[in-house]
Amino acid sequence: MRDAEAKFKKDIGLVVATSIVIGSVIGSGIFVKPGKVIEAAGDSNMALLAWVLGGIMTLASGLTIAEVAAQLPRTGGLYAYLEEIYGELWAYLCGWVQSLIYGPAVLGALGLYFGSLAAHFFGMPDTAKLWIAFGTVCFLAVINSLGVRYGGYIQAAATAGKLIPIALIAIFGLLWGKGTIFNMPSGLTEKTGMGAAILATLWAYDGWALVGFVAGEMKEPAKILPKAITIGLTVVMAAYLSVNLALLHILPAADIVRLGPNAAGTAAGLLFGDIGGKLISIGIMVSIFGTLNAKILTFPRVPFAMAERGHLPASHLWLRLHPTYATPIHAIVFQVVLAFLMILVGDPDRLSDIAIFSIYIFFVLAFFGVFILRKRHPGGERPYSVPWYPVVPWIAIIGSVFILVTTMLDNPLDTLYAAGLTAAGLPFYWYLHNKNK
Question: Which of 171, 229, 301, 415 is in the most buried spot, having the most CB atoms within 10 Å?
């Protein structure tokens, strides 16, 4: 695998790496989660605090992973880090979860968010969101099956499009809004607490680790990767806080909760009129469409990489490339079929919570990897060291454990589902490990 990796061109610099972080993170979350965060937190003050805490936790996580990535600058990201630190079993389980839970749940949630916004935009009944979600995921799967080039065209257009509504809502909402931002109640008598609120923000911050997948293609990964993560997440955190402050300046907190994923579009209509609001709503849908395209482009590469190591049943099937387009067609179909099953759940917020819970188990292991690597190489020279060690890694670990525990308490059924599917991978691993041996 390392011989193959050495053949990659080292073309990615700081600007491109930072744009990957920003482009991977900014998607649906900032537009669809503000109401969910306020609902869970109970009022606007605690909701804004949840966005700050989620950002700090994500930044601490990024800085911690950066030290691991700088010492193990390989293509593959989290999968490669766990394989080096803990061995084959934990890497396998990470890939198994990414292939069967995290990836399909993310695709399902993004499809449903897009479907909900599109149905609202065109005045269709809410039930239409399922069919729109199915059709959108299927369409993008076909496009990406025809070659990376076509998915790349969509991605380039969507990346530019996603920044426009954020900038317009943040700038003009803060300038022209007249509402009260602070001490505004959610309008609901019950709240699920800060744990659920921070978990909702983590969906919006999710995606920053994808830059580690291309570490092997960076010019100087040990220097570029930490800077890209730090700069990228700082920009994202500032953008998210600005948009939330702007939304609260335009709409009462209770209305943001009631409108849910349609709050940003409604706020844009109040700012720019009917036509301007519709254009911003289109920009928001383009942003989610682009994020969904990026996930369909990248997620099938995980089962493909596992198949290369013989870590999936019928590995030869998942390794097959389309004879004309040279795309992992079977892996794409596999991810899309699982995403269709997730879409049938019908609740994108539930799917996003399952996705974050399932992947953060492995993030915690990666955070502990900083201590393990330092113990293995005491006094060794490191290309990059996490600042304020060991405080920053412990912030990442404690924050992640807090999210995992509160999720288990608030949604025991979903966490059992995620844990059961994770454990279901063990018999396959033992069988395939003995077979490959």
Answer: 229
